[in-house]
Amino acid sequence: MNRFAELLDRLAYEPGRNAKLRLISDYLRHTPDPDRGWALAALTGALSFKHAKGGMIRTLIAERTDPALFALSYDYVGDLSETVALMWPTPQAQRVPLPPCSGGKGLGVGGAIRSHEDRPPDPSPPFATRTGGGEQKAPTLTEVVETLSTLGKAQLPAQIARWLDALDETARWALLKLVTGGMRIGVSARLAKTAAAALGDKDPDELEVLWPGLTPPYLDLFAWLEGRGDKPSNTDPAPFHPPMLAHAIEERDFETLDARDFVAEWKWDGIRVQAVAGRDAEGHIVARLYSRTGEDISRSFPDLLESLRLPAAIDGELLIMRDSRVQSFNVLQQRLNRKAVTPKLMQEFPAHLRAYDLLAEGDHDLRGHPFEERRARLAKFVEKLDDSRIDLSPLVHFKSWPELTAARADPASAGADQDAEAVEGVMIKRRDASYVPGRPKGPWWKWKRDPMIVDAVLMYAQRGHGKRSSYYSDYTFGVWNDADQLVPVGKAYFGFTDEELLEIDRFVRRNTVDRFGPVREVTHDADKGLVLEVAFEGLQRSTRHKSGIAMRFPRINRLRWDKPPREADRLETLEKMLGKFENVRT
Amino acid sequence: MRAEDILVPTPAGVCCKRGGFTIDPTRPVEKALITHGHSDHARAGHGAVLATQETLDIMRLRYGENFAGTTQAIRYGEELKLGGVAVSFHPAGHVLGSAQIKVACEGFVIVASGDYKDVPDPTCTPFEPIQCDVFITEATFGLPVFRHHDAKGEIDKLLRSVALFPERAHLVGAYSLGKAQRIIAMLREAGHDQPVYLHGAMEKITRYYESRGIDLGQLELVRGAKKSELAGHITICPPTAMGDLWSRRFPDPVFAFASGWMRVRARARQRGVTLPLVISDHADWDGLTSTIAATGASEVWVTHGQEDALVHWCVSQGLKARPLDIVGYGDEEEHEITSDDGDVPLPPRSGGEGLGVGGSLHSREDRPPTPDPSPPLAPLVEGGEKK
User: Residue A232 gets which letter from DSSP?
Assistant: First the structure.
């Protein structure tokens, strides 16, 4: 448990992806089975324990600590698990009382400065020991996982208390994070699998394909990765297929491409998913929904799973559809943010699959066939399925690049009709392209619609993390309101070049008017300040921001050194953009 | 005899009328008794200063030869009569030369402990609890969430990270007086025999520690070192230097910070630390409470830190307790000087900060943006207010 705790602890602080991979790989390499397998399960979200909740933890600590001290501590730390982990009174922490005072009340005069060397040997150690032999033995991760999965609810509090007694501060924190299921250490399942694949120099996609067939603690997986065993076979009837991704197209690319070789379709603003159905050994249909990275998200969309009645693998976009109209990404997000999937939620936010491609039908793998042929089979398949929740993503008809340019600029007139606002650009696909996992250059291109742009004024800058920790690289910017005051409307920390980062950093350091920890407020009045051209993908109402507006995907597009702050945009401009959104939607 | 007949807490420090002195005064006084050399306790500009030899030496290093009118050194355990009171200094285990000050009068004993810790530190004389009637304690980490655990384990964590990322530099933020030298000494105890690199602001104090017989192994200055040379090595620097232009000279640095504050995640994250090391020169909660018990004091005065929780604990143990509300003690870091060119800050260059990575940048990180004129009497004392 201690090594796992140390891993979680370091991952929680480490911002760099490569460093995270190294830390996880190093742990997996040096930790024996089955502990490392359970750790991998924990990192990939494959573990969940039913009974352990915050309330139980709160009761445990209330029985052991002074309520006033707990309240002061919780207030200071701000996180329940962490507070409990830190202040848990363990038997080991009860220090042996300090030895009787050497000074005494009438201490003699004239001792020399005592260094270690001439200190008289003391029969009793001057310091109480903190780690002195507690009877409790720290549990292994395996013990914790196995016990939790078999233990009844009634015995749970006493068991957790025994473990907390036996562990140190970091391990107690890790244990509480593990049992309450709120790890939040910035590690995705994909990252953990990539680190595991690195043990055997394997492609993470290869592991992704196997993954649904694997179960913790993954003994067969580690045996294969370490060259001690055969590759585990994925007998899952509804396996994930590593997806094909597109490159962003640029102006000059068109010169080398012949429009006749390509077809185009709308790029819908939802989440890219893969819907797979197959038959198990008994002939029953097994259906799963995967995210683009291979995470099984079936549990969140039971309404859509019901529609996957025929064996096939569909690549498509998950959308929310109301009265046959595609809803905005904002609406989809409201469904994604909910933990429990209730009937009410499914009724209010009905899940829909808009199909782009067919990777397999029945037992036939179609990935080697040309796109045009797959597309024809997809059309027939969707027709046969005849389900209102699944439809075919329409093609955008064009004969030349200028025609496609026009369609992208005005999707409503080019066939997207009332769903035009849910279009975030076009996809351009070679007619003869087979389905190749990864991001091959050439067969698929994405051409996103132009972002929205405003000129905003830099108000606050915060130091970044990791490599950027000596740079002011996170920017809060604002626009003018009715009262001619700047109100913050967003935060961005990318989009600029390295040279621009240096320029902004220099500006921030020279124009600081106030400091709040790692944050600096910079000069921002009508005549003096830095105007940032901010690009973003959408707007939504927000109660968290003073301005009442939140931007989607904001980034710094350009530095407007030439523009005085008074000429930056106003809040009403953003209100109008938002209004346009809402009118179209409702 | 009442405690207040001997010592009276004032906003400027704990004052003894009979003896005519103030302990760790936060503004210039006639006669000062100084517990240790951190600049929130040891300020320049007093008439006369009584302290251990090490504390006087450290003040001289930091403030220059004329930091006080007159000085007098006192040894641990030595007793002096001042007015009608007996004064003696006893090890506090905080930094080199740190002391608790025992003030006795007609059999009534008060101990002002300054800052202290009750765990081993290879660079200073161990803390000794002193029997007393009134114990004046700090409460920097006076909340039960502050459990510093075993500092050795944190040093091991640092060394494991160096082994795992040999191509990266490891920057360890540490206060330049005490913490920096303790970290280096503990690295040596753990068997680390590679050179340790130092930020220029730490050089003088560290050399002073060495001159007092503390072996710190091979030390190198960052100034002048090549970028590639710093990979795979540990560099000790003032905490504020980590967020500074200065840190750009290091290859893909891992940011470690050795402090009791690192126990709380939000604090570590706020500072952008990627490898927090819970190593403190202050007593943690268990240390504070067991020390108070060991002194046998029936009354406790709390100078600074998380007073509320510690006062509450004392009362729950049947002790009289009160916070003193002395403005000006606290984080040593507030007073850290982070010039890489030694201990004395340079005047800011024209145009403030340059962007160059090499050379001798004067950092003004976390200070007011405009250069503040130094007060004539105490040239290097920072204002006592928290920012």
Answer: P
